[in-house]
Design a protein that fits this description.
globular, two-stranded antiparallel ribbon, 8 strands, 33% strand, 8% helix, mainly beta, Chitinase A, domain 3, six-stranded antiparallel β-sheet
Length: 134
């Protein structure tokens, strides 16, 4: 994976990264950048349940979901979410903050999620703080 250098993320692990700044054209393919490496256990596989805080935004556009804004983390199995999340989080460690750019083929595909304002060609950008694993 290549690094995602065209997004500026303010704040450290645990802080709401609400002001993402997009500096260039949207990247192609799934891209992952580790912003902070945690010292906890490594996420072993897609069967793992993770607890995270996350901020989701359309490339160059609006926030469509954020557990930071809701003030409550979320726990789920990596095999229950979009492909890009699983590929981005497996192998990462608890306590890490990662930045992920997810193209439609790793996200919601041609159906998008109209009720969330996600179109069929939107690139999704997530800042994810990994809080724990089960």
């Amino acid at each position: 994976m290549t690094k995602l250098n065209d997004v500026v993320v303010e704040g450290d692990f645990g802080q709401d990264p609400i002001n993402l700044q997009f500096l260039g054209d949207a990247p192609t393919g799934l891209q992952i950048q580790v912003l902070h490496t945690g010292s906890g256990d490594k996420i072993p596989d897609l069967k793992t349940r993770v607890e995270v805080n996350y901020h989701g935004q359309i490339w160059g556009g609006k926030v469509f979901d954020s557990s930071f804004i809701r003030g409550k983390s979320i726990t789920f199995g990596l095999n229950q979410v979009i492909k890009g999340w699983g590929e981005a989080l497996v192998g990462q460690t608890v306590g890490s903050r990662i930045l992920v750019s997810i193209p439609p083929e790793y996200g919601y595909g041609s159906r998008g999620v109209p009720q969330a304002g996600i179109g069929d060609e939107d690139i999704l950008v997530f800042v994810v703080d990994i809080l724990g694993i089960e």
